[in-house]
Amino acid sequence: MELLYEGKAKKVYRSEVPGQLIMEFKDDATAFNGQKRGQIADKGSVNAQMTARIFQWLMEKDIPTHLIRRLDDRHLLVRQLTMIGLEVVVRNGVAGSLSQRTGLPEGTAIDQPVLELYYKNDALGDPLINDDHVRLLHLASPQELAAIRRQAMQINEWLRPFFQERGILLVDFKLEFGWFEGQLMLGDEISPDTCRLWDSQTRERLDKDRFRRDLGGVEEAYQEILKRVMT
Ligand code: TMP
């Protein structure tokens, strides 16, 4: 298979069919824009399975995604999107950089979800940007950005109860979108790498913050999330 792209957590290969790609999920883990590096055993498998499960479920709710089907433990067959250079973060609670930026303690509830836009640019460290910057950088038109915001908020409305029913608080998560034949589609992944997932009862962190913050029990947390998500 021809390797088209290798990122920090995934490789992307060309498939035999034009317009279709194969995403391979790696066990490699990075944090703080690649400054911290490591491996999380079976992370690739957890993230591929969880992404496939959640994208399939979202498609049943009429949210378009790039997923065609899961090929095996680590590989997904996806549509080739023209990616939008944004990371869209939706927050239901205060954590991470929002806590740092505002001084609000982690765990503070938010009654109206907060949506943030980050410019996907490793050299700049993925900075927080606003709608005018999106226009300035030609990342999306105002109409397109409005559609992206609507879609991200709708996904949050579906995912919150999905996780809640499984004893998980969806604190925040990151989405990436792209275009396929004029249609806005959810791309990339939804996994413990890209979400903050806390046990509803104990508030234990069951996500990549265990790796970022050296909390231990990283693999166990990923397996626990997979078990709950696959039911
Ligand atoms: P933050 O609080 O560090 O800004 O992260 C917000 C959410 O976005 C959190 O669920 C983790 C996710 N995220 C990514 O998926 N990729 C990234 O590079 C970063 C910084 C955060």
Q: What series of H and E elements makes up the topology? A: EEEEEHEEEEHEEHHEEEEHH
Task: Write down the CATH class of the largest domain.
Answer: Alpha Beta
Poorly predicted sequence stretches spanning 5 or more consecutive residues: none
Assign the structural class, choosing from mainly alpha, mainly beta, alpha/beta, alpha+beta, or little secondary structure.
alpha+beta
Tally the structural domains. Answer: 2
* Ligands bound to this protein structure: thymidine-5'-phosphate
**Mean pLDDT, nearest integer?**
98
- The biggest beta sheet, please? 5 strands, antiparallel
Give the spatial strand order of the biggest sheet. 1-2-3-7-6
Radius of gyration: 17 Å
The outline comes out as: globular
**What would the CATH topology of the largest domain be?**
D-amino Acid Aminotransferase, Chain A, domain 1
Put simply, the count of helices is 6
Percentage beta strand = 25-35%
CATH superfamily of the largest domain: ATP-grasp fold, B domain
Q: What is the structure about, briefly put?
A:
The chain has 231 residues and is an alpha+beta fold. 30% of the residues lie in helices and 33% in strands. Belongs to the SAICAR synthetase family.
Features of the shown structure:
Phosphoribosylaminoimidazole-succinocarboxamide synthase; 231 residues; ATP-binding; D-amino Acid Aminotransferase, Chain A, domain 1; 5-stranded antiparallel beta sheet; Phosphorylase Kinase, domain 1
Compile the SSE list and pairings.
Blueprint: E1 3-6, E2 10-14, E3 20-25, E4 28-31, E5 36-39, H1 43-60, E6 67-70, E7 75-79, E8 82-83, E9 86-93, H2 96-102, E10 109-119, E11 128-129, H3 131-136, H4 142-164, E12 168-175, E13 177-180, E14 183-186, E15 195-199, H5 209-212, H6 218-229
Antiparallel strand pairs: 1-2, 2-3, 3-7, 4-5, 6-7, 8-13, 9-10, 9-12, 10-11, 12-15, 13-14
Helix pairs in contact: 1-6
Domain SAICAR synthetase/ADE2 N-terminal: 3-228
Family: Belongs to the SAICAR synthetase family.
GO molecular function, one term: phosphoribosylaminoimidazolesuccinocarboxamide synthase activity
